[in-house]
């Protein structure tokens, strides 16, 4: 049973809207990473937060932003949604230095119409 | 494009061994991982190997790493129908802790 929970599980938004996805990390994990998984593809790294600061970013535009809170919960915000943003969004929590310690949530399926 | 490449599909009969292959391009990879994804679910870590190892065995799973050819494989012994899923290999780099670079995944279908 995963210790990472994501909400909502499914979401439909209209192009141009904004969306906030939420992740509750496993207890004690102070690092959270977000990934975008398009249909039929592997997950792509969006960014990582460590102790509430962004600590690494993939090839995603600034309209993808995030927040991490002291209780290790986090948010992924996407502004000005585009059709290509339709994907499964996964968060993963970990503790630096813990090999293989990435615990993934079940994801939020975002559909942009 | 992907820096990690995998074949897209594998069909195997129940009870046989499955071998899933992966190639990666970055020689500075430190750890290499195998994840499993079932329909509607997140990613489950199956096993990982450090880049200075060439083999790791964990129950039914055997990971082989050929660092010279940048080739990674996952062998599943006695494949069961519950092993039907998409399998991803992934790498992390020494300077990018927390960033996993995934392949596109191999869909494994186990037939009775």
Description:
- The complex is a heterodimer of chains A (113) and B (112).
- With 113 residues, chain A is mainly β.
- Chain A is 0% helix and 51% strand.
- In chain A, the strands form 2 sheets. In chain A, strands 2, 4, 5, 6, 9, 10 and 11 form a 7-stranded mixed beta sheet that branches.
- In chain A, a hairpin with an 8-residue loop joins strand 9 (87-94) and strand 10 (103-104).
- Chain A is globular.
- The N and C termini of chain A lie far apart (33 Å).
- Chain B has no helices and 11 strands.
- With 112 residues, chain B is an all-beta fold.
- In chain B, strands 2, 4, 5, 9, 10 and 11 form a 6-stranded mixed beta sheet that branches. A 5-stranded antiparallel beta sheet of chain B has the order 1-3-8-7-6, with no helix packed on it.
- The chains are: A mainly beta (113), B mainly beta (112).
- Chain A binds chain B through residues 2, 4, 31, 33, 35, 40-45, 48, 50, 55-56, 58, 90, 92, 94, 96-97, 99-100, 102, 104-107, and chain B through 2, 4, 31, 33, 35, 40-45, 48, 50, 88, 90, 96-105.
